[in-house]
Amino acid sequence: MRRVVLGLAAIAIVAVACSPKSSSSSPAASGTDACSVANLHLYAPGKLTIATGNPAYSPWYGGKSVPGSDWKSSSFTGDPHTGKGYESAFAYALAQQMGFTKDQVDWLGIPFGKSFAPGPKNFDFAMQQISITAKRAQAVDFSEGYYNVNQALIADNGSRAIGVTTLAGLKNLKLGAPVGTTSLDVIQQEVQPNVEPGVYPDLHSALQDLKNGKLDGVVVDFPDAFYGYADQIVGQFPPIGGKQEQFGLAFQKGNPLVPCVDQAIDALKTNGTLQQLQSTWLQTDASVPVFT
After folding, report:
1. Alpha-carbon distance 208 to 230, whole Å?
2. Is the pTM here over 0.85, yes or no?
């Protein structure tokens, strides 16, 4: 999912794993140096171009804006160039593992929906809390998963959602989520509400309606629930269809860069870097009850 809020707070998450692999050939098939920077298929030669949202919200992105950056930092937003926040730190660790220096990494701001839209890309991959789904995989190739995430329901004090423990108990509530997100999928597929859900262009808009009393609750990525968007975390949802949801990097379909990125992600998992970054930048609580 993603995009966030003015003056409310930021975001957060949960773990690592693997995901559907691209159909691209493995690096070994092309020779031992196929994944050296000089041999990589890149949008801009010698540069790793990464797309993400602008604004870029914490805890995924942090730090103060660097001179000349298109990203403006605030209490709830950061600048991907800083290497602070989980995804920014992951991006630079991944780039280093692939053989890039920090000044060889370029950032591009794009709308969330463009990250997994079909067609040519003006970046190497998008890193924007993009959940891997079969539908999206028809339009783009995904890397291995770099974070396991669940969905959660947040609400303000006085909401009818407070105290609900079952999916059936949510059916008659007005719930909301941003368009095109797995948060909205959870409402439609797991809750199957009797009340038409609120569908928003971004999370900020959904949270505004929550604050104005037009929604009983908003569904967000589980880590986002811990950053002050609402008064309470009502509960978390079981995975859709029993499959663990994961964030992955999104590439233009058929991009031969995918196997080399997967190789670098595997290395960061094996050497403990991903787990260390999650411990540094993300907050979750396994004791939050799951709706039954």
Report:
1. 10
2. no
